[in-house]
Amino acid sequence: MSKVIVVAGARPNFIKIAPLMAEFKKHKQIESILVHTGQHYDEDMSKVFFDDLGIPHPDINLEVGSKSHAEQTAEIMKRFEPFLKKESPDFVLVVGDVNSTIACALTAVKLGIKVIHVEAGLRSFDRNMPEEINRVLTDAISDFLFITEERAKDNLIREGISEDKIHFVGNVMIDTLLKCKEKSEKSTILKDLVITPKNYAMLTLHRPSNVDCQDTLANIFEALGEISKHIKIIFPVHPRTKKAIEAHDAIRNTQYDNINFIDPLGYLDSLKLMSEARLVLTDSGGIQEETTVLGIPCITIRKNTERPVTITQGTNVIVGSDKKKIIKEALSKLDKSNFDTKIPKFWDGNAASRVVKIILDNEK
Ligand code: UD1
Q1: Residue among 206, 230, 238, 248 flagged as catalytic
Q2: 108, 126 in Cβ contact below 8 A?
Q3: Ligand 1 pocket test: which of 94, 97, 240, 300 has the largest number of ligand atoms within 8 Å of its C-beta?
Q4: Structure pTM?
Q5: Which residues make beta-bridge pairs with 317?
């Protein structure tokens, strides 16, 4: 019997751990314990995902909340360590690239506990992104590195990680999407927002590089103002972005008639909104992958992506935060109706079962 502690802290983590928790529960040889670090804590950033995705209630919530990077990372480590000592698991499983990921991986490895990283090897090669630091460091101390796309392996090998630790299993976030797609059809979000399929664009924006710099944010909003003359924009606003908008006089005082600012959405409503959109504008990592599978054109308001397969095989284009480029790409997408997309290898709904099989095989 092995014991694994699964860690989740921020919104995208919940979507990734859902299929893993479900898969662990199928195997009697493995006991899974769920730790919520409390990095995200608002109901619409956390609880609604547990409800929508049927994730079991966490065994413990470390309730760390929002802090500076150093304080948040340190506080998670401080609160996680006694729990790890008490539980003494064989493995700690972390997902993605948020502060909770590196904090818990580092705490575990220092206690001699094996670390499993799901969604390893992605690289934007932009060390100004906090997530890039989290990715590189988590991968460097992990024992099992589960990758979502083939190029991730090259990144890891280049960093000196031994090949036998790397396993190409596919994408657990897409496991969740495929499982929930039918259920999301029942969402009333389009009716609630009084919109119809293909008559709106969906926007998400929360990267510090986009929202924490006033000039960049203003530039993006000028582009959005222009695009919204051609199509209605539905914008579920992340709390970081809400604060940034409230602090920005010019944006706060502008009337954007065709942009609908709404509260963050739960998983099923968000999936429905994305599936029926004519176009998605985003700076999220996960949404680049989800639109690839859904075949919805995606414009990424970033200078780079750590998920290149969404460009080579999917619908994604990178435009940075330049106003003209954002407008040009959005308008050209609105003119087109067919978008080629190929589903990347192993993005087939079975990634979590591959992960668990490899862990179990290793225990034999
Ligand atoms: C974090 C992740 C990011 C991920 C994103 C998904 C890191 C470094 N960043 O960014 O990779 O894409 O989550 O959402 O881990 N806040 C609330 N309520 C909440 C959570 C946050 O109001 O439930 C506000 C707080 O003011 C906080 C700010 O949002 O200061 C930012 O939260 P934080 O978790 O630090 O980073 P995110 O921008 O959410």
Answers
A1: 206
A2: no
A3: 240
A4: 0.97
A5: 299
